[in-house]
């Protein structure tokens, strides 16, 4: 049975409450205008490139905040599956790409759209969608059910226990079109790239030191060393070891 709350999901808990706290703080201090990105004038005219580093710090409206933290709450199961150390390492590894790939996509699409695509809304939507890609790949479907759309039994919509998570994520992606959708697509791309090792080996194998998340070296450290030995032996013998599942 799935445990309620943030049991065995410490990193998810701090991220959940951190997003809420930062969004409220920015709102009450009237600093919302510092966090979203406009290619023109913020980047190209005023050279405010510091916005690229802080735009995922908070959400600027309550709707995005609600769907963002609700999605994140449902994704805490990934941390329970991986453990807090790997989960925190993943978030750290994909943070830099998710900060810059959505603005890059916006830059490429802006001329094609005759400058109508110009804004990225504030918020960690790319980070959440990078995590959603891991949820999609690693968490199995437990059950499915059908919703009858008419009196005919043939007109039915098949859903699963994961459908609610995808529905919340879709609402988040569509909340501030078109910028929110660009953020979501960029985050999903980064998550899939990490999952499929489409980058340097260190990007996917690197782990934070255990003491940073309150862990202890010892048995956990021995297990980590053993996992890395298996990966090395697998490459030497031609055997594929999926380190993402460990």
State mean pLDDT (0 to 100 scale): 87
Unreliable spans are 217-223, 237-241
Helix content: 55-70%
Helix and strand content put the structural class at mainly alpha
Radius of gyration: 20 Å
Strand order in the sheet with the most strands:
1-2
Strand content: 5-15%
- N- and C-termini, Cα separation: 22 Å
User: In DSSP terms, counting alpha (H) and pi (I) runs of 4 or more, how many helices?
Assistant: 11
* Largest sheet: number of strands, sense, barrel closure: 2 strands, antiparallel
Instruction: Give the topology string: H per helix, E per strand.
Output: HEHHHHHEHEEHHHH
Give the overall shape.
Answer: globular
Number of distinct beta strands: 4
Structural commentary:
By secondary structure, the protein is mainly α. It has 11 helices and 4 strands. The protein has helices at residues 10-28, 39-43, 51-54, 62-74, 76-82, 84-112, 125-138, 163-173, 179-195, 201-205, 219-237, and strands spanning 37-38, 119-120, 144-148, 156-160. A two-stranded antiparallel sheet has the order 1-2. It has a two-stranded antiparallel ribbon with strand order 3-4. A hairpin with a 7-residue loop joins strand 3 and strand 4. Helix 5 (76-82) packs across helix 6 (84-112). The longest helix is centred in the middle third of the chain and has 29 residues, at 84-112. It is globular, with a radius of gyration of 20 Å. The two termini are 22 Å apart. 30% of the residues are buried. Mean pLDDT is 87; it is low at 217-223 and 237-241.
